[in-house]
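Example complex used in Figure S2.
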Amino acid sequence: MKLRDCPLDTEVRVRAVRFEADVALRMREIGLRPGGTVRVTQRAAFGGRVVAIGAARLAVDGETAGCIDVELVTS
Amino acid sequence: MTDCHGGTQRARPVGVGDSGPRAAGVSVAAAGTTMVALRILLLGNPNVGKSTLFNAVSGANQGVVNAPGTTVELEVGTWPTVDGAPEVVDLPGTYSLLARSPDEQVAADAVTRRGVAAGTGSDLVVVLVDATSVSRSLYLLAQVAEAGRPIVAALTMVDRAAEHGLDVDPAALAAAIGVPVVAVDARTGAGIPALAGAVARAFGEPRYARGVAVRDAPADRTEDLAAQLEHAEQLFAWVESATAHLAAPAAARRTLSDRIDRVLLNPWVGVPVFLAVMWALFELVTRVAAPLMTLVSTVVAGPAADGVRAVLAGAGLGGGWVEGLTVDGVLAGVGTVLAFVPLMAVMFVAVGVLESSGYFARAAFVADKAMRGIGLDGRAVLPLIVGFGCNVPALAATRTLPNARQRLLTGLLVPYTSCTARLTVYLLLASIFFPGDAGTVVFAMYLLSVLFVVGGGLLLRGTMFRDLRREPLALVLPSYQRPALRPLLLSAWPRVRGFVVKAGRVIVAALLVIWLLMAIPVRGAHPVAQVPVEDSLYGATATAVAPVLAPAGLDDWHVSAALMAGFVAKEVVVGSFAQSYAVTAESDPSAGAGPGPGASLSAELQGTLDRTSGGESGAAALALMVFVLAYTPCLATVAEQRRMFGRRWAMGSLGVQLVVAWVAAVLVFQIGRLA
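Predicted assembly (750 residues):
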């Protein structure tokens, strides 16, 4: 599932961040890391999403949200 | 950064050859030893409260300087409550020392040994740790530790973390990472004395992060990417172990900021709210600041000028060229600069309110899609909208962009946003030449202005700014908070002062040159400084320039003289027409169509353009409006561009604007007369 398709207020785990290596590094630096848990808190215009990473909030545009693979946290 | 010191600073002697990481600073030769002023760098992620902390510790002892060899501005001050009042530098916010923009590179260089070599290094780095995002902050702290710098950590946003059920204990964190951690709230001043104490102790007994090896070669983007990623993973592992003692935030807690975002970022509400906020900002520039500008101008041109004239008359220098030079040259120049002060102050404070409230990041998020279409950052929307009010504060507003190249690109486009001063010219010409369609014509000018910005943006991105990559938007949203006025004023003051001192010099000098051109007679027997425009060197220059405008149907010295005057400010174009035709129309365009003195200006302009255009005065008037739209907005804009981006870019921008204006005006006239 893509982050863009993720339901609101549902914990998901990041499986992959599909960008070029240098962009992927920056994504990791700001907290979007494979294995990390995030939660979509808001849907914005043009497919944008606000995600909660711990207590922080990160806004990503629709295109970016479509490049992040996530899976539901089952436990 | 050697020109940025203020106040008394403690200095310590260091021996010859002590040029390692801890010997950076400003050197002053003294009796065989080198005295080095202590320097503290404030480093942290964007929106972590760094500038607020800087304002809290330095108070009014601060100024703005450019980082050496760059157009990146740094706020530099002193920390008077630490023994010896060391220098403190507010570095650009960054998530990493692996820089991805010129601003981040300045921060990275200052922290690493490259900064020592360049004289921008430090004795101590105060790393701000965001309690709502400790891991992200500690990653940056780990990179500082790798550079071998002593560190004091300032823990911020503790109250915000508490909203999420996060309780970050400074003592436990300090024990985990090995450097002092002091909780601060720069908005209230809580914790600042304790931080000053920790900093003072760190000078005597430097502390280094535990468990991070110092690297000989600093982190660098030129490294192999795989190596960077691998190394980053090592740092993330250190961060994880250092934060293992922290409790996870309460699950799915919805904060006040989340609830506000539900409205302000809603797909249907977010855009209208954003447009309303931008409209309010535009109104602030045009309606609130404009009367203040007028007030300052009136005081300078009235009581101040009268006072100077009286003093000169008392000294036996009244009525001659000395009075003209002093009042119409120097004082007029100073008045022009001072008139912009309220506008700049209002803009700096307004932008500060948007930033510190947390809304600015949301505005950038909402506008990103539209701005991305022309290759700009979402944050560029603010200066471009402000530009439709006035270009000068719009240039100042580009500072909100986190990348120097993005600031430059936006700063080059701002002059094409049609400021309200240009509206006076559109209204005059539209009411004379298109009385039935004046509104449509003026609206078309604004549409054309948008086209210039969009076209210019696309053109520049495809040529000189190809290095600006299209990157995915991932923007950290700070929590909403009520802005504190004092830090905003403290931050605005050095920026306004910088404008007055640096841009002001250029404005006054240029106005003196123009006064001189108008004061020197080239025809007739006029005394110096009492010359009709057409007989002055200015008039002769306008006459010489006029044929250049012939392809646009504007070959007349009245027109070229008005456009030359418009180089100073567009507000004076209409007055210049009135002056050169010796009528009193002033700037009331409605007078142009009716009887009375205004009718004279209308008739004169109609007659002139009929003659210069071969009977196609409508096309010529449109060409004139387009020229006014596209060429140099005003002297203050050029001066501000020069201050922000350097002389080369300012002059290049000016030249391009003139070429664009001429080409566009010629095209409009040539096509218009065929229609």
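Chain A has two helices and five strands. Chain A has a mean pLDDT of 91.
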